[in-house]
């Protein structure tokens, strides 16, 4: 946005004689910048999808399949995997749609509207991925409590203790801590990747509001 800042300074110096031209130039620059940002959001979304899909195929060996069968969640995880693929492809389609809408926008008001829509799509995407990670964690936890011998023995030992309530509190607290840590790492990952781009879009939106007033 350094170019835009320089152009705005020049605009202020000559606002009496070149206001209309400068507004037009600033709009074009914001338009190009917004289109570029949304294009990168789409590219990163595609790369992330391809990377995670490749990672899934890499680890989907016999031992992984046997582990799922041991926990009796092989069918459920297969369904969730296909649902996740469908939803992620849907989000990528929306990223592409947002990119096309912003690229072909010809008014500041419509560009502002499309920028907000693009930001909202990314936020929904991040919220979905965090929710899916939480759901998978809970499914694995519940199935391990039912079918994993080590977890079952741990639960039996806790129940046999005199201070079982305190032990259960510590056990559940540890699980919640691990869940919060995992979700926090995922959130930080998305914050670093998409947060920078969303902030650029928001700055563009604010600049457009000034022009539109």
UniProtKB/TrEMBL annotation:
Keywords: Membrane, Transmembrane, Transmembrane helix. The keyword Transmembrane helix applies. It comes from the Bacteria. The chain crosses the membrane at residues 37-59, 71-93, 122-144, 164-190. This is Beta-carotene 15,15'-monooxygenase.
């Amino acid at each position: 946005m350094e170019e835009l800042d320089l152009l705005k300074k020049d605009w202020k110096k000559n606002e009496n004689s070149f206001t209309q031209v400068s507004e037009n130039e600033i709009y074009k620059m914001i338009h190009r910048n917004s289109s570029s940002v949304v294009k990168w959001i789409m590219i990163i979304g595609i790369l992330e999808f391809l990377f995670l899909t490749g990672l899934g195929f890499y680890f989907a060996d016999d031992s992984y399949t046997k582990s799922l069968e041991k926990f009796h969640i092989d069918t459920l995880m297969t369904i969730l995997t296909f649902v996740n693929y469908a939803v992620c492809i849907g989000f990528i389609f929306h990223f592409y749609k947002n990119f096309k809408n912003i690229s072909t926008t010809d008014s500041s008001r419509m560009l502002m509207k499309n920028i907000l829509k693009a930001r909202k799509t990314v936020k929904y995407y991040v919220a979905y991925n965090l929710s899916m990670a939480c759901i998978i964690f809970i499914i694995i936890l519940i199935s391990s409590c039912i079918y994993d011998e080590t977890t079952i023995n741990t639960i039996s030992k806790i129940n046999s203790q005199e201070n079982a309530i305190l032990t259960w509190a510590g056990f559940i607290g540890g699980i919640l801590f691990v869940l919060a840590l995992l979700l926090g790492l995922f959130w930080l990952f998305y914050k670093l990747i998409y947060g920078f781009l969303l902030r650029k879009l928001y700055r563009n939106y604010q600049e457009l509001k000034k022009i539109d007033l």
